[in-house]
Design brief:
This is Alcohol dehydrogenase-like N-terminal domain-containing protein. Helices cover 17% and strands 29% of the residues. It is an alpha+beta fold. The chain has a 5-stranded antiparallel beta sheet. The structure holds zinc ion (2 copies).
Length: 218
């Protein structure tokens, strides 16, 4: 019988912003689970706002990270999307109710019972969730993306939050047709990916960004 796996991560234990090593457990591999070694995890500003308590007070310790990519080590007996050696990615959530209106429309991120990838408790195993600033992930294959092997893993990681955030409205509003022009105000983590998408979709892409002048002193 499979047993829980010991995982090493980096955790915040208070709102100071300091991180320190932590050892915790991921659940034993279930029939629909994928286990993968984490190779890269993006650093998103949301991670910072959670661990510093800017938006709400989390339950510490918190292992952040929600742009998680890696290589599949083991799959459960009922897994159909993955095999050992495949590249896998996990974003901001790892479970949902599976039966409400938005889950049926394959939009589990809007489910009222969504389970976040960290600082949640997953009813599937009763364990607290810990994110991608760690070395190994165990997740239901429904919440794991197959990444093409020709996509470099380090470049793929930011697509899982920053990329999805800008891709979603671009897709929803059908951008990239009829010679659309595209502008980004503020060339940051999201904006630079949006520009790349716009260019790939054949749009005329422009950005406008403020320049900050840092005094150098004398
Ligand atoms: Zn639901
Ligand atoms: Zn994010």
């Amino acid at each position: 019988m499979a047993s829980e796996t010991e995982v090493i991560g980096w955790a915040a234990r208070d709102t100071s912003g300091h991180m320190a090593p932590i050892i915790f457990s991921r659940r034993a591999l279930g029939p629909r689970d994928v286990k993968f070694f984490i190779k890269f995890c993006g650093v998103c500003h949301s991670d910072w706002t959670v661990i510093t308590g800017e938006v709400y007070t989390p339950t510490f310790p918190v292992v952040p990270g929600h742009e998680i990519v890696g290589v599949v080590e083991e799959v459960g007996s009922e897994v159909t999307k993955f095999k050992v050696g495949d590249h896998a990615g996990v974003s901001t959530y790892v479970n949902s109710c599976g039966s409400c209106r938005v889950c049926e429309r394959k939009l589990p991120q809007h489910c009222k019972d969504v389970v976040w990838v960290y600082d949640s408790v997953n009813p599937a195993d009763g364990l607290r969730t810990y994110g991608g600033y760690s070395n190994l992930m165990v997740v239901d294959e429904s919440f794991c993306l197959v990444l093409p092997k020709n996509l470099p893993l380090d470049g793929a990681a930011p697509l899982l939050c920053a990329g999805a955030t800008v891709w979603s409205p671009m897709k929803r509003y059908g951008m990239g047709k009829n010679g659309d022009r595209f502008g980004v105000v503020g060339l940051g983590g999201l904006g630079h990916i949006a520009l790349k998408f716009a260019k790939a979709l054949g749009m005329h892409a422009t950005t406008e960004s403020l320049e900050f002048v840092v005094p150098t002193g004398t």
